[in-house]
Write a structure and sequence with these properties.
about 350 residues; mainly beta; Sulfite Oxidase, Chain A, domain 2; five-stranded mixed beta sheet; 24 strands; elongated; binds ligand MTE; binds molybdenum atom
Length: about 350
């Protein structure tokens, strides 16, 4: 019998800040399972078990699959980054000055041929682009995948005309928030000025936000009012995620019921490293003594790896499933994710 956990909508992972999940309805039919090699696990004497000692299954086997088009529902996105991340790094949408749609302008200036201002209506009349993109904070666990709508930054810059020697672009909000970036990087990555996330306008007074593939979210300036082109002596570096935010993984299931021996338990979650390929997702059901590795080298690096792991409970007990990701440069998630579940005889 197939059993599903509840899926986390907005919750905490131990030590890793907030994670976001998906709605229960996204759980697909279970893939075919192969359990041939998993022999009967040795019984564990319950009386030996202290509160934190979980029952162990070495070399856990299950049905593994992944997709990359799983999106975060936009309401959750807005919640997540609008309130949850506030304390860590981001100003929430509602905290931006109230500026009516008609009064909101983006000024394109600095070292350009023609300084100009453009309003939202005009931006929305330009050639629009829709793209599935990841927004991942480099300083906290927050991550989301969304379909965003907007215009190409290159189109906006082109209308101003780039001045001689310009190598730097900075997207600023009214308070001056914004980090300088190499212009060439922003062009190569096909950065967007986004006005819709998941088909909905940005929340609060955000109006416009920069989105750039493979780039941490501190560069995703919200409520952009100024795009500045400049000549830097030294081209700024684009910083990646903090070490402890490399190879992000999470199990999004929450335990909402107990299981019986023979039940199929469907776990799911994501793995991502902001543009560095995730080459494997690994699971442990014995506290990290053994890890079973599933290959994800066919994944692209633009979207997160949204994995499914279907496990058939073989024995009664209290278990902890750990998951970690491995990237192409050998990074192993410093913050593994885990979930505890119970199996009855
Ligand atoms: N104007 C402005 N934009 C900002 C920030 C900010 O403090 N002010 N924080 C950044 C950081 S660190 C993150 S993680 C993202 C999070 O918000 P988002 O979901 O809107 O991308 O916004 C980015 N853009
Ligand atoms: Mo962030």
């Amino acid at each position: 019998m197939k059993q599903s956990f509840g899926i986390k909508v907005l919750g905490c992972t131990v030590g890793a800040g907030m994670v976001i999940g998906t709605l229960g309805s996204v759980v697909p039919a279970a893939p075919a399972l192969a359990f041939g090699e998993a022999g009967p696990a040795s019984p564990v004497a319950v009386w030996q078990r202290a509160a934190v000692d979980y029952d162990k299954v070495p070399n856990v086997q299950g049905g593994f699959s992944f997709t990359q088009d799983q999106l975060t529902p936009s309401d959750e996105m807005f919640n997540l980054f609008g309130t949850a991340a506030t304390a860590i790094c981001a100003k929430p949408g509602y905290a931006f000055d109230e500026v009516s749609r008609e009064e909101y302008f983006v000024n394109v200036g600095g070292n350009v041929e023609q300084v100009y201002s453009i309003g939202l209506d005009e931006i929305e009349r330009m050639d629009k682009q829709m793209k599935q993109m990841r927004c991942t904070c480099g300083m906290s666990a927050n991550i989301a995948m969304a379909s965003v709508t907007g215009v190409k930054v290159s189109d906006i810059v082109e209308m101003a005309g780039v001045g001689a020697g310009v190598n730097t672009i900075t997207f600023k909000d009214k308070d001056g928030y914004g980090l300088p970036m190499p212009l060439s990087y922003v062009m190569e990555k096909d950065a967007m000025l986004v006005y819709q996330i998941g088909g909905k306008p940005l929340p609060g007074n955000e109006r416009l936000q920069v989105w750039i593939p493979d780039t941490v979210a501190k560069y995703f300036t919200r409520a952009v009012t100024d795009i500045e082109l400049s000549v830097s002596e030294e081209v700024p570096e684009v910083e990646g995620p903090d070490m402890d935010q490399r190879a992000k993984v999470s199990i999004l299931n929450t335990v909402s019921e107990s299981f019986k021996v023979g039940d199929l338990i469907a776990f799911e979650g994501y793995a991502d490293d902001c543009g560095t390929q995730v080459v494997a997702v690994e699971f442990s059901l014995d506290g990290g003594e053994t890890w079973t590795s599933y290959d994800t080298t066919s994944s692209n690096t633009e979207d997160w790896v949204y994995w499914h792991f279907d496990y058939v409970a073989e024995q009664p007990g209290t278990f902890k499933l750990d998951v970690r990701a491995v990237t192409e440069d050998g990074t192993v998630s410093p913050l593994a994710s885990s979930v505890v579940f119970e199996v009855e005889a």
